[in-house]
Task: structure prediction
Amino acid sequence: MTAVQVAEKARSAGIRLVRFLYCDNDGVIRGKCSGIADLETRLERGIGLTLAMQAFTMLDHLAPYEGMGPVGEIRLVPDPSTFVIAPYAPHTGAVLVDMVTLEGQPYPADGRDFLKRMVARAAGERDLHMLAAFEPEWTLSTRADGVYQPLDESGCFTSTGMNTAAGVIDEIVEALEAQGMEVEQYYPELGWGQQELSIKHAPALAAADRHIHYKETVRGIALRHGLFALFAPKPWVDQAGNGCHLHFSGWSKDGTANRFYDQTQAYGLSTLARQFMAGLLDHLPALVALTCASVNSYRRLQPQTWASAYRVWGPDNREGALRVASPTRSREAQSANVELKASDSSSNPYLALGGVIAAGLDGIERGLELPPPATTDPHLLSDDERRMIHADRLPQSLEEAVGNLRRDQVLIDALGDRLAGSYMAVKEADIAAFASEDQAFELRQHAYKF
Ligand code: GLU
Ligand code: MG
Result:
């Protein structure tokens, strides 16, 4: 769609405001709205934004980072292909934006541009066309006196849980499908009030875009039911965490061959897939700074919570950071994919997926080999057994993860200095801010941010 077509569509749908949305370095979705009168111009030229915003934290503090202060502007320029009529707010449209310099160049601290660059690299260097799906868990809750409470105490996969949430889930499904997001599965998850509703995979950039529209939709519809959809990794310490598992596979350009699949090899994994996965495992101690991106993330990454606490891979192993999903019978090639479990919704999806691709490409480049698979819960193994499958614990704090990222030159080079530098400055500001506060403050501040 062109800008003119988007504006026409918005007008004929009676839209009054169009949200120009982006996800910032700290995983918060922010934006500005355009009125309808001069929408075409803003769609083409963008809306101005202070360039300090990529140094802004989830607590609305400005992290100290050179060149990101009160002086200077960028433009939020919509990608018209991402325009939707937002069913969760009156007379509203939503479009996702690129951050662009005043000279019309990609802003070097833009996360969406980073993912575009990684997608292009995978295609250009390896003829790998990445498909991905973000698979979020979230918790429906009420709020009274500023305190969030789970919607119900229903159990995992229970029909009683389906009934409690049926009204709001029905409206969410309708709203997602109205925006072209095809719902795959839905069920109440283990935690009280916890839900999992997955949408179909898409080319990598579209998958990250959809994850933004998805969160906007889920949160917006829930609110119309007087409910709060919490995407925090661990809203309550005594309840299951909310993962956002990241599924991916690499395809031929024409989309006919899943290049991660080889029926002649163990677990149907092609050599390319194994090298890609080995790259991920190699970089994982740093990569989690992008995929498990908040202080709260590390409350979730605990052993024996099915969230993944160890740097291992395994076939259908839900305690492994990388799970090779068993393919669907007679649709093996179409369905074969790998899942990163060490991933949650406090991350910026563009950075998380871009980081996954950068790490995977490095594995291919270096021809890395996978260690033996974890075929059982790695937490139950002896130290010797864990050593045999290289099962290190994942970082246990954001501080440890960001420290690893600082030393991971492959990921830093892929991100580029401005993006990597501002990202780490923001995370370090969060680490310092939460270190001087208690657990209740951390839980409350993370609950409804992402
Ligand atoms: N809630 C678990 C997590 O934090 C995932 C449970 C599952 O779907 O296997 O990742
Ligand atoms: Mg789940």
The radius of gyration is 21 Å. DSSP finds 14 helices and 16 strands in the chain.
